[in-house]
Specification:
Helix Hairpins, 213 residues, mainly alpha
C-alpha cells in the first residue's frame, strides 16, 4: 500500500494490507525492544560517567594546589618554561565497540616505555611541579574514560531519538492508516455483498414469477 493514493477495495488488496500491518507491528515490537535496551544502556553510561567524573575531582584539586604552590615558589616565568618544554600532544589509541548496534569510540592513553617520565629538568623545579606532573599523567586515562562515556551517552541518545521517531511514525501514522484502509475495504466489500444479495434476490423473484406465469 502506498500512502497518499486511493485504496482499491478488493480482496487481494485486503490480503496485502493485512500482511503489511503484520510486518509493521512486528517492526514496532523490535523497535520498542530496542528503545528499552537503549534507555537501559544510557542509564548505565550515565552512572559510569558520574563515577568517572567523580574520580577526577579529587586529583584535580591536588593538581591545582600543586600548581599554585609551584607558582608561588618558582614564579610564572619558570613554570611557563617548563610548560613550553612539555609535549602538547597526547597519544591515544582509538578503537570502536558496538552498543545496541551503535558505534562507540573507546580511548586508551598510550604509555611510552623506555622514555623519560618527565620532559623537563630537575634543576629549576621543585616537588610541587613533580607532583602536579605526576598527577596529571596519572589522571589522563581517567579523563579519556570520562570523555568516552560522555560521547557514548550522546551517541546512544541520538540513536534513541531516531528510534523514537520511527516508533511514532509506525504507531501514529502507518499502522492507523493500515487499520483505516482495512476498515474501508471491509465495509466496501460487505456493502457490495449486500447489494449483490439484494440483486440476486430480485432476480430470483422475477424468475419465480415467470415460472408461475
Amino acid at each position: 500500500m502506498s500512502f497518499g493514493r486511493k485504496v482499491i477495495a478488493t480482496k487481494i488488496e485486503l490480503i496485502k494490507i493485512r500482511r503489511s500491518i503484520q510486518v509493521a507491528r512486528m517492526v514496532h515490537k523490535i523497535l520498542d525492544d530496542k528503545r528499552e535496551v537503549l534507555l537501559k544502556k544510557i542509564d548505565e553510561m550515565i552512572d559510569e560517567a558520574n563515577k568517572a567524573r567523580g574520580d577526577i575531582w579529587s586529583p584535580l584539586g591536588e593538581i591545582y594546589t600543586s600548581v599554585y604552590n609551584a607558582y608561588m615558589s618558582l614564579g610564572t616565568t619558570t613554570l611557563e618554561s617548563v610548560a613550553d618544554s612539555t609535549p602538547s600532544i597526547m597519544e591515544v589509541d582509538v578503537n570502536v565497540r558496538r552498543v545496541v548496534d551503535v558505534k562507540i569510540p573507546t580511548l586508551e592513553v598510550k604509555n611510552k616505555r623506555g622514555g623519560q617520565d618527565l620532559s623537563y629538568g630537575f634543576v629549576e623545579t621543585n616537588a610541587s611541579v613533580d607532583k602536579a606532573a605526576r598527577l596529571i599523567k596519572n589522571m589522563l586515562p581517567q579523563v579519556c574514560k570520562a570523555a568516552e562515556y560522555e560521547n557514548a551517552i550522546f551517541s546512544l541518545a541520538k540513536e534513541l531519538q531516531k528510534t523514537q521517531k520511527l516508533l511514532n511514525a509506525l504507531e501514529y501514522v502507518i499502522i492507523p492508516q493500515y487499520d483505516s484502509a482495512i476498515s474501508f475495504i471491509r465495509a466496501t466489500l460487505e456493502e457490495r455483498e449486500r447489494e449483490e444479495f439484494v440483486r440476486l434476490k430480485k432476480v430470483k423473484v422475477l424468475l419465480d414469477k415467470k415460472k408461475s406465469d
